[in-house]
Design a protein that fits this description.
Radius of gyration: 19 Å
Low-confidence stretches: 1-13
Distance between the termini: 38 Å
CATH architecture: 3-Layer(aba) Sandwich
Mean pLDDT: 85
Shape: globular
């Protein structure tokens, strides 16, 4: 069993915003009242949904194997409800694709998991360390997340896992930046994870759908408020978000799916998807200005 770390940190503290850390958010009496009712309600909702999910998997796994015809609907309902409990409004533009393939998006926060799951049914690809995180790791494992190690020796095995999931019709969700940023920029899309899409027999039937997440901070807060990066712990950020009396909103933009066969290499595909996501974020931010990465 993985031991519980004393302090859960942001996924990749190596990335530091050029503008530094976001200003600290003071929590007054009204904020603590919001936390006092939102936190237990959110916990019951999320982990109650997890219990239902795990119960259904006892039937689903032996009967359907990799296919999951039931549990993704539970995940989707839990994520929709979680956003409502937190008071964050979701605004969706475009339509999730129906054809086989994967979703790639910019990565801003732990909130991305709820936002991306709410309007569609998909499975995340995450680094292996996340599996050991209390709370988040448990949810990720239960909902079919694919965990990968950043080790060249595992590249072939990871590719085989991706192919198996894609062939049964799972929509995998990648964060090609490799880390999360502060929500006002998009880092370079790394082409490594795009390699599986070019496997023989797959490139001709798969499409990649770029998706842009655009967070709008609560009134009076730093525009990077919902971003989770650097040294800010998960617990501190969770309380910061739950404590807002007036929440902000998040825009989710589904772009046109890109057939893998339209590209000759993973590099050109990664570049094209990154440019699409970056362009939508730039136009969606206040004043149409995006920070340099």
């Amino acid at each position: 069993m993985t031991s519980t770390p004393e302090r859960t940190r942001a996924p990749d503290p190596a990335w530091i915003s050029p503008e530094g850390e976001a200003p600290p958010v003071p929590l007054g009496p009204a904020n603590w009242l919001m936390i006092a009712w939102r936190l237990p309600v959110l916990g019951v909702w999320v982990f109650g949904g997890l219990l239902i999910h795990l119960s259904l998997r006892l039937i689903e796994r032996p009967v359907f194997g990799l296919r999951r015809p039931l549990t993704p609907f539970i995940t989707q309902a839990v994520c929709k409800g979680a956003l409502r409990i937190m008071g964050i409004r979701l605004e969706v533009t475009g339509t999730p694709m129906k054809q086989r393939g994967a979703v790639v998006a910019n990565h801003v926060s732990w909130l991305d998991i709820f936002v991306l799951n709410a309007p569609q049914r998909l499975y995340f690809v995450s680094k292996s360390e996340v599996a050991g995180w209390p709370g988040i790791g448990w949810l990720a494992r239960a909902t079919g997340t694919v965990f990968i190690r950043r080790d060249a020796r595992d590249a072939r095995l990871q590719k085989e896992i991706f192919e198996a999931r894609l062939r049964v019709g799972h929509h995998l969700c990648f964060f090609p930046e490799g880390t999360n940023s502060d929500g006002v920029r998009v880092l370079l899309f790394k082409p490594t994870l795009f390699a599986a899409f070019f496997a023989p027999g797959l490139s001709g039937i798969l499409s990649i759908q770029p998706v842009t997440l655009i967070y709008r901070a609560p009134p009076g807060r730093d525009e990077r408020f919902y971003g989770w990066w650097g040294e800010l712990s998960f617990g501190a950020h969770l309380l910061q978000v739950l404590g807002q009396v007036r929440q902000g909103r998040v825009g989710l933009v589904f772009h046109a799916p890109v057939p893998v066969s339209d590209h000759t290499s993973r590099k050109t595909l990664a570049r094209a998807c990154g440019e699409t996501v970056r362009g939508a974020l730039a136009s969606g931010l206040p004043g149409g200005v995006m920070r340099d990465s």
